[in-house]
Automatic annotation (TrEMBL):
GO cellular-component term (any): cytosol
Gene3D superfamilies linked: P-loop containing nucleotide triphosphate hydrolases
Protein name per the record: ATP-dependent RNA helicase RhlE
Gene: rhlE
EC number: 3.6.4.13
Any Pfam family: Helicase_C
Top-level class of the enzyme under EC nomenclature: hydrolase
Annotated ranges, domain DEAD-box RNA helicase Q: 21-49
Helicase C-terminal domain segment(s): 248-397
Similarity field: Belongs to the DEAD box helicase family.
Residues covered by region (Disordered): 404-425
Keywords attached to this entry: ATP-binding, Helicase, Hydrolase, Nucleotide-binding
InterPro entries for the chain: DEAD/DEAH_box_helicase_dom, DEAD/DEAH_RhlB, DEAD_box_RNA_helicase, Helicase_ATP-bd, Helicase_C-like, P-loop_NTPase, RNA_helicase_DEAD_Q_motif
Source taxonomy: Bacteria, Pseudomonadati, Verrucomicrobiota, Opitutia, Puniceicoccales
Domain Helicase ATP-binding residues, every copy: 52-221
C-alpha cells in the first residue's frame, strides 16, 4: 500500500524499539495527545509503542498480541491523528461481534473527543433506520460487523471507494466465525491504495494466508516474544470428578479473594444452568450468550462492569467478543475444545499488564483438549487441588504445589489453597 518507507523493515521486536516515555513521543497529533491525557493515560503499552509509529508513517501492519494489550488504542490513536478533519468515509474497522464493535466505537469517540469527526456503528440485532440516517448525514469512521456492513453495501447506503484506512481486528476470531468470504467481498469494495492493518491474538498458517490479501508488504510486530498468553496471568487446572464440578466451583469461589469473576461454559444451556445453580446459593450472577436479547446482554454487561454483580457466566462470546477491564479471575467451568478459545478466555484477566488468575476445572473427558491446549501455548499448565475438599478420588498432580495462605471466605474454618495469587497493584 502507499505510504512512507520505514527503513524497509519487515519485522521488528520490542528489543529493537527505542524507549518512549509517553504518547507525545510517538508522532501523534497534539489534539490526540491531549485526548489521551484527558483519558488519564500516561504511558503507552508495548503494542502501542510499536504500532503507532508504523501506522503514522503509512505502512501496512500485521500485528500479533495477546488479548488486553491495548490494541484498540494502538490503531485508533494514529488513525484519528491522520484523519483530523471531517470528510468522506475514510476509515473502516471490522469487528467479529456487536459487543466488540460497540466498544471500539466508544474508544474512537473517547480518544477523538477534541476532533470534529463522525463515527458510526453498524451491527446486527437492531433496526436499520438510525444506521441508514447516520450514513446519509455523512461519516468519517465506520466500525462494523461484516454481515451488517454487507447489508448496507447491498442497499447502496454507503460506498467504500474513499477508504484510506482499513482495520481487520480479531482476525483469528473472524476466521473461526466463518467471515472470510464476507471479508473478501468487503475488501473488494475498497481501493487498492489504502493503508491496511490486521490484528490477531495468534498468527498461524491460515491467518498468514488471510494476511496475503488483506495487507501489502506489512511491518510485522509480535508482543510477548510470540507467546499467546500474557505474562501477568497465572493459570492452573483443578482435576475433579465430573460429578463434583459444581461443588469444586463453589469451593473456589469461597477461597479466592476476587473482585470480579467470569465463569466460562461450553454451551448456552450449561451457562444458564450454572447461573441458576449459583442463584440458589448465596451468589448473584448474570448470564451472557448469543441467545440473550441485546437488551439482556447490555444489562448483564452494565451490571458486571459497574460492580453491581461480581460473577458473569458466559460462553465464548465474551472470550473474544467484548472488552471488560479489571477482571480479577477467570474460571473455565468447561475446558474449551479449541486451544485458541483457551487463550482468549484467559485473556479476559491480566489485561493492560494487570495481574490476574485463571483456573480450569478438568475432568477425565477433557484429557485430549488439555493436551492440545498445552501444545498450542507451549507450556504445561500447573495442576493444583483444594485442601480439605472432599474429593471422590485423589487428584493426580504432575507438579508439587506450594501452600499459600488465602483469605477465608467461609468454606472451611482454616482452608489452604494453591491458587497462585499475588498482591495486586
Amino acid at each position: 500500500m502507499d505510504g512512507l518507507d520505514l527503513n524497509a523493515m519487515s519485522e521488528i521486536s520490542i528489543e529493537e524499539l527505542s524507549d518512549t516515555s509517553g504518547f507525545g513521543e510517538l508522532g501523534l497529533s497534539d489534539a490526540i495527545v491531549r485526548g489521551v491525557s484527558l483519558c488519564g493515560y500516561k504511558e503507552p503499552t508495548q503494542i502501542q509503542k510499536q504500532a503507532i509509529p508504523i501506522i503514522m508513517k503509512g505502512r501496512d501492519l500485521l500485528g500479533a498480541s495477546h488479548t488486553g494489550s491495548g490494541k484498540t488504542a494502538a490503531f485508533a490513536l494514529p488513525i484519528l491523528s491522520l484523519l483530523h478533519r471531517s470528510g468522506p468515509l475514510r476509515c473502516l474497522v471490522l469487528e467479529p461481534t456487536r459487543e466488540l464493535a460497540q466498544q471500539v466505537e466508544k474508544a474512537f469517540l473517547k480518544y477523538g473527543r477534541t476532533l470534529q469527526l463522525k463515527v458510526t456503528l453498524l451491527h446486527g440485532g437492531v433496526g436499520y433506520g438510525k444506521q441508514t440516517q447516520d450514513l446519509q448525514r455523512g461519516v468519517d469512521i465506520v466500525v462494523a460487523t461484516p454481515g451488517r456492513l454487507l447489508d448496507h453495501l447491498s442497499q447502496k447506503a454507503l460506498t467504500l471507494q474513499d477508504i484510506r484506512f482499513l482495520v481487520l481486528d480479531e482476525g483469528d476470531r473472524m476466521m473461526d466465525m466463518g467471515f472470510i468470504p464476507d471479508l473478501r467481498r468487503i475488501i473488494g469494495h475498497c481501493p487498492q491504495n489504502r493503508q491496511s492493518m490486521l490484528f490477531s491474538a495468534t498468527l498461524g498458517p491460515e491467518m498468514e494466508g488471510v494476511a496475503n490479501w488483506v495487507v501489502s508488504d506489512p511491518v510485522r510486530i509480535s508482543i510477548g516474544g510470540g507467546k499467546a498468553l500474557a505474562s501477568s496471568v497465572q493459570h492452573s487446572i483443578y482435576p475433579v470428578d465430573d460429578r463434583q464440578k459444581f461443588d469444586l466451583l463453589l469451593a473456589l469461589l469461597e477461597q479466592i479473594d476476587y473482585r470480579s469473576v467470569i465463569i466460562f461454559c461450553r454451551t448456552k444451556l450449561g451457562a444458564d444452568m450454572i447461573a441458576r445453580w449459583l442463584s440458589n446459593t448465596k451468589y448473584r450472577a448474570v448470564i451472557l450468550h448469543s441467545d440473550r436479547s441485546q437488551k439482556e446482554r447490555d444489562q448483564a454487561l452494565e451490571g458486571f462492569k459497574s460492580g453491581a454483580v461480581e460473577i458473569l457466566v458466559a460462553t465464548d462470546i465474551v472470550a473474544r467478543g467484548i472488552d471488560i477491564m479489571d477482571v480479577s479471575h477467570v474460571i473455565n467451568y468447561d475446558v474449551p475444545q479449541n486451544p485458541e478459545d483457551y487463550v482468549h478466555r484467559i485473556g479476559r484477566t491480566g489485561r493492560m499488564d494487570r495481574e490476574g488468575d485463571a483456573f480450569s476445572l478438568f475432568t477425565a473427558s477433557d484429557q485430549d483438549f488439555l493436551k492440545n491446549i498445552e501444545r498450542f501455548i507451549g507450556q504445561t499448565i500447573k495442576r493444583e487441588k483444594i485442601e480439605n475438599f472432599p474429593y471422590n478420588w485423589s487428584p493426580i498432580l504432575e507438579e508439587r504445589t506450594v501452600q499459600r495462605k488465602r483469605r477465608n471466605r467461609g468454606y472451611d474454618s482454616s482452608p489452604t489453597m494453591n491458587i497462585g495469587r499475588r498482591k495486586r497493584r
